[in-house]
Amino acid sequence: MSSIQISDVTKTYRKKPTPALDHLTLEIGNGMFGLLGKNGAGKSTLMKILTTLEQPTSGTAEICGISLTQPQAIRNLIGYLPQNFAFYPNMRVSDALAYLATLANVSVRDQRRRIAQLLDDVNLTEKANAKVRQLSGGMLQRLGIAQALINNPQVLIVDEPTAGLDPEERIRFRNLLTDFSSNRTVLLSTHIVSDVEATTNQIGVLDHGQLLFTGTTNELMVTATGHVFEARIPLESAIQFKQTHQISEQVTQADQIHFRFIADSSDQKPTAPTLEEAYLYLQAQHEGVLS
Ligand code: ADP
């Protein structure tokens, strides 16, 4: 059985002519699933619907076989780290978690053990007595995961968790999510391709509320095979070349520029796509801007 089943979900906000989600159908199994898309693609909307904070305009969805029309049962099943996670800045880390544990009906008897375990899981034991406002961005995100896991959820939903983290913290955070996804479902949204590159096998690409692709990262790269090219162009022709090609990378080497670009076809040499290029190719193809 899939953990998350989304069937023909459309969400239209009031006063918006185009839907934020447009007849979306998607099945997500156990493990880590990366939802990739530009700002405004509809990622947060989907996550808010799955967490029952928003309701779909039409369509249905289930989490572990339970319909979203049963919000209390759904909330018992899921943990959620929203995009702009705000916490109680003046509380101590362990007190804030204890407060949330109480709200989540964790019995007082179990709270100490549960909080100690969570802090250990997210590597924050040393900060148990620190004030929340003293934590770095990365630590705050890890605390966000701890709070999302307080009710031991089957499904963890995290919205753009690496925004604002430095590269080292981003990698550490990704690894943490991978560990958690070994025996549950983690749905992670991001606009940063490298967030899904190393850790998630299954991805979905969302654009204007529509799913452009779903499958493995390798499968996405296969779709762009034969559509990424390399060319060395003299400096004096480089500006014109850039205007007429979809450039994915450029490196200046002495008196020429080494370009990588995406195109439907070219007389230049094809090269193996990176995941980032495969993502660009998919978007460009959808927008009809390729030559
Ligand atoms: P993402 O998370 O991928 O950046 P969102 O789900 O936040 O995308 O937004 C998708 C679209 O829905 C955007 O056009 C956005 O402006 C619109 N939108 C999101 N939330 C609201 C809201 N509460 N009211 C009106 N429009 C909204």
According to CATH, the homologous superfamily of the largest domain is P-loop containing nucleotide triphosphate hydrolases
Number of domains: 2
Separation of the first and last Cα atoms = 42 Å
CATH-defined fold name of the largest domain: Rossmann fold
Unique ligands: adenosine-5'-diphosphate
* Average pLDDT number: 92
Overview of this protein structure:
The chain is built from 10 helices and 14 strands. The longest helix is centred in the middle third of the chain and has 14 residues, at 108-121. The protein folds into 2 domains: 4-216, Rossmann fold; 224-287, no CATH class. It has helices spanning 43-50, 71-77, 93-103, 108-121, 137-148, 167-180, 193-197, 217-223, 235-244, 275-287, and strands spanning 4-11, 21-28, 31-36, 58-63, 66-67, 78-81, 155-159, 185-190, 202-207, 210-216, 228-234, 246-253, 256-262, 269-270. A 6-stranded mixed β-sheet has the order 6-7-8-3-9-10, sandwiched between helices. The protein starts with a strand and ends with a helix. Bound molecules: adenosine-5'-diphosphate. The site of adenosine-5'-diphosphate has 11 residues, from helix 1.
